Amino acid sequence: MIVVSDIESVLPSLREARSQGLTIGLVPTMGALHPGHVSLMRASREETGFVVVSIFVNPTQFGPAEDFDCYPRPLNADIKTCEANGVDLVFHPDAKAMYPPGFQTFVEVKSLQDVLCGASRPGHFRGVATVVLKLFNIIQPDVAYFGQKDAQQVRIIRRMVDDLNVPVRVRVCPTVREPDGLAISSRNQYLDEAQRTHARALFQGLEEVRERVLKGERDAQALREVLASRIAATPGAQLDYAAVVDADTLKPVRKLKGEVLVALAVKFGTTRLIDNLSLTV
Ligand code: PAJ
Q1: Domain of 202: which CATH number?
Q2: How many CA atoms lie within 13 A of 167 on its CB side?
Q3: Which domain holds residue 91?
Q4: What pLDDT shows up at residue 178?
Q5: Number of structural domains, the chain?
Q6: Are 42 and 85 in contact (CB under 8 A)?
Q7: Distance 186 CA to ligand 1 centre (A)
Q8: Most exposed: 76, 88, 166, 177, by fewest CB within 10 Å?
Q9: Residue 258 C-alpha to ligand 1 middle, in angstroms?
């Protein structure tokens, strides 16, 4: 496995892989790798000939009061995880290389970036879209792998790829969960024991929504209330949003029809957790 941090040093390995006729897969991450990330590496290992994992805690997607400084950066453990899962190249640039002095260009995916998580994290998706397009341009993957856990991020990246004719195929992999249903996230390690126990409320709320829909409920407001009351009854939990939106436009729906996304964000202290359920009605 090759480990590189400067942009120029990635090129020879990628050129060599391409000259051997291998397709290139990219798994963009911010490190602190966990089984959710590993599922993306494995999907890429199965489907592409040369697997690249990028590890970069991207400053432009963090708000001024967010956890950029304390975001976990266990680089050595991450490199071992990559090696153990058949990754061919780890790319971990530093912020100066990605955003040199004079950097001025940002990608905005209008309207999709402003709703759901974007409403409480202004600028977040502008930072995500910008860094993902930069990674696509540096690595030039055939396929890039993302997790359904960050459903809005997926929607925004797909929109960007379509709008800007980016020649990358986007693959989305299912959310990997803890045994009690909590979606695995690098931020779960911020939770104390009680918060960790109560954090299963997000998944439980979504499961209740799924059951109600199976029994015929089609009213979005009723389903939002299922989530809101579940979170209201959870000690230490504060609802940021509970939403039932069209999977394509991310706009709220009144009645469930076609592909819908049920999504919520909940704060436990300063830790913000998200989860979602995608449904076809
Ligand atoms: P990060 O949070 O490290 O996540 C990297 C990828 O892993 C994302 O596509 C995310 O959706 C996926 N992922 C995280 N937890 C998952 C889980 N439990 N199950 C399945 N997939 C999971 O998302 C980012 O980094 C950044 O925004 C990034 C795209 C790298 C741009 O900086």
Answers
A1: 3.30.1300.10
A2: 7
A3: 2-173
A4: 98
A5: 2
A6: yes
A7: 9
A8: 76
A9: 26
